[in-house]
């Protein structure tokens, strides 16, 4: 599948410079960035769903700092 995007002049120059410096294609870096971004988004949505499911059965979540304080006692 082909996708067309508009880059700013700065983004295009940075991508060109990186591709030239490494000998990789610009497409390689765009696909790599997209793959990593999608993975991060999927992880974030999965975490939100897990918290929602946890709290839906009446359990309460706590901030990490509260758990760390409890462990340090």
Give structural attributes:
73 residues; mainly alpha; 3 helices; 74% helix; elongated
Task: Write up this protein.
The protein is built from 3 helices and no strands. It has helices at residues 9-22, 26-56, 64-72. The model has no long low-confidence stretch (mean pLDDT 94).
Overview in brief:
The chain is an all-alpha fold and 73 residues long. The model has no long low-confidence stretch (mean pLDDT 94). Helices cover 74% and strands 0% of the residues.
Strands, total number:
0
Shape: elongated
Number of helices: 3
Q: Report, as a whole number of angstroms, the end-to-end distance.
A: 56 Å
The secondary-structure element order is HHH
Class computed from helices, strands and strand pairing: mainly alpha
Query: Mean of the pLDDT scores?
Result: 94
Strand content: under 5%
Percent helix range? over 70%
Low-confidence stretches: none
- Report the sheet with the most strands, covering strand number, pairing sense and barrel closure: none
Radius of gyration: 21 Å
Topology:
Blueprint (H helix, E strand, L loop, with lengths): L8 H14 L3 H31 L7 H9 L1
